[in-house]
Predict the 3D structure of the following.
Amino acid sequence: MTRCCSNIVKWEMGQLDFSQGCLVMGVLNVTPDSFSDTGQYFAADRAIEHGLKMAADGAAIIDIGAESTRPGSEAVPAREQIRRAIPVIEALVGKTDVPVSIDTYNYEVAKAALDAGAAMVNDITALGDERMGTLAAKHGVPVVLMHMKGTPATMQVEPKYDDVVGEVLAFLLDRAKKAEKSGIPKERIFIDPGIGFGKTTEHNLLLLKNIGRFVDSGYRVLVGTSRKAFIGRITGKENPAERVFGTAATVALCAAAGVSIVRVHDVAEMTDVVSVIEQIKKNDVD
Ligand code: HH2
């Protein structure tokens, strides 16, 4: 199937221009305990500064999360997520034109973030709470639908699939159809295989090797591999900050395969990776 959408996706609070290929989404964790930045951006002023740096470095979207969903993590109450995220969203919306996305599966948090000016919802439960679909449709914003097996607290306890690629893709297509039914147009839906969310290293590698099947589904695809544990397992790098080159390999593969958005911590570096891959694709001669 060919891709659904025009190169420019436009809505009231934002725009994404895919005419040059893959876009980079910068990760901004306003958390004390995220796996890769361990509290560096927990203070609002540090988070705002880092968000602006990512925008200057080439991020097309800034994805703000106020709850770590690393394996084994516990849920953070909505009120606390709102306390962490909203001042940062308000400041960034006032200081940059780069759309801000809210990384949450919690309806109250999503609602508060959209009211504060967030322009996109990144939901790791793929609209597990059906009110999220109606909310996104009402605000006219794009959504990311991610696959996860289980919950962050338990997802890495022996995840099993008969056919990981087929099962993850079928789940995402079902959720994408539901999102369309709740009033979100196809061009504002991004599907994401959920690398590391209830998957072994082998599962992650199979999903990446077959990422073209997701791209061929006709929905735009987002992939988040950045600094994740499977890269550490392959490269022997225990410190997530040392997984940048390993991440670059996955970003190059995704951009080459036609993925629309890569979600990363190292925006400047991955923007270079994507630019080179897109240039090679443009100069493709048979
Ligand atoms: N990964 C993380 C969080 N949100 N959202 C999408 N759509 N896809 C992903 O792969 C994804 C995501 C985990 O990474 P990070 O935010 O850096 O860590 P933590 O959950 O510890 O804050």
The mean pLDDT is 95. The chain has ten helices and ten strands. The longest strand covers residues 23-29.
